[in-house]
């Protein structure tokens, strides 16, 4: 069973146009591969009859958009499940074994890779595997949002120059963002909230893929009915969604 990289979605297609290269992502199951998630912790639960539902964590403030995708789209769920079931045992055994599999599946025309539209660095060995993948492909750009900040801290002096990380605030290890001065992304419920923090909003992933200061992301995706996150999504009327990119916004 070979690993699968996903071609650019609507948001990453806008990044492709900006960078002038093909952008892919490598994705795993949301929530179950996110050991430090908190504010956005959601995962898919498969029922006995094979149907799927979403389960939020006890401290979830807003629902993970990629977990919602895995409920809505069977092919998306199956692809991420297959990646997870293939790469995690390899990483548990050896970072080099996982890196070899990731490199073997890397599309020849990939100029930029987002590590995880869905999922996160579940194991230190898996984090190390991606450091090796980036080191073996110095002419390609790699980037990731992550809440697995303890792994980042352990490898501060080992990050390849073509791998750019952004701390995703809202996790169990947020204290490390301030302690180490990591660049961060914050999910906001309105443009006014971002303005009050002095943060630009990243609409096309260019802030994440390119060096620069911390930034904000507008809340998007399917949120629980009656929640503050749900009210914010309705008020934004799609301004935080990937579909906005299709219109050239």
One letter per element, helices H and strands E, the order comes to EHEEEHHHEHEHEHEHEHEHH
Low-confidence stretches: 243-249
Overall radius of gyration: 17 Å
Strand content: 15-25%
Distance between the termini: 38 Å
What is the total number of structural domains? 1
| Main sheet makeup | 8 strands, mixed
Shape: globular
Instruction: Work out the helicity level.
Output: 25-40%
Average pLDDT, rounded to a whole number, is 91
Based on DSSP secondary structure assignment, what is the total number of beta strands? 10
Instruction: Provide a count of the helices.
Output: 11
Characterization of the model:
The chain has 249 residues and is of the alpha/beta class. The protein has one domain (5-241). 39% of the residues lie in helices and 19% in strands. The chain contains 11 helices and 10 strands. The protein has helices spanning 10-19, 65-72, 74-93, 95-105, 124-136, 149-154, 175-180, 191-197, 206-209, 228-236, 243-246; strands at residues 5-7, 22-26, 42-46, 52-56, 110-115, 141-146, 163-168, 184-188, 200-201, 215-218. Strand 3 (42-46) and strand 4 (52-56) form a beta hairpin. It is globular.
């Amino acid at each position: 069973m070979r690993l699968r990289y996903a071609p650019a979605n609507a948001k990453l297609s806008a990044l492709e146009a900006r960078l002038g290269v093909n952008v892919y992502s490598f994705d795993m199951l949301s929530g179950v591969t996110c050991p430090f998630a908190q504010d956005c912790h959601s995962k898919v639960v498969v029922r006995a009859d094979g149907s799927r539902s979403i389960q939020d964590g006890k401290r979830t403030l807003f629902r993970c958009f990629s977990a919602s995708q895995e409920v809505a789209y069977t092919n998306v769920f199956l692809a991420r499940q297959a990646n997870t079931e293939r790469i995690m045992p390899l990483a548990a055994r050896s970072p080099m074994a996982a890196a070899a599999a990731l490199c073997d599946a890397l599309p020849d025309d990939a100029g930029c890779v987002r590590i995880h539209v869905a999922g996160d660095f579940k194991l230190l060995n898996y984090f190390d595997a991606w450091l090796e993948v980036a080191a073996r492909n110095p002419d390609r750009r790699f980037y990731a949002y992550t809440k697995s900040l303890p792994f980042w801290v352990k490898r501060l002096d080992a990050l390849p120059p073509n791998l750019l990380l952004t701390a995703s605030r809202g996790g169990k290890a947020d204290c490390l963002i301030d302690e180490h001065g990591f660049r961060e992304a914050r999910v906001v419920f309105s443009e006014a909230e971002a303005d009050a923090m002095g943060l630009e909003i990243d609409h096309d992933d260019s802030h994440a893929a390119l060096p620069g200061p911390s930034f904000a992301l507008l809340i998007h995706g399917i949120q629980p009915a009656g929640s503050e996150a749900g009210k914010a999504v309705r008020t934004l009327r799609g301004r935080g969604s990937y579909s906005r990119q299709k219109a050239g916004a």
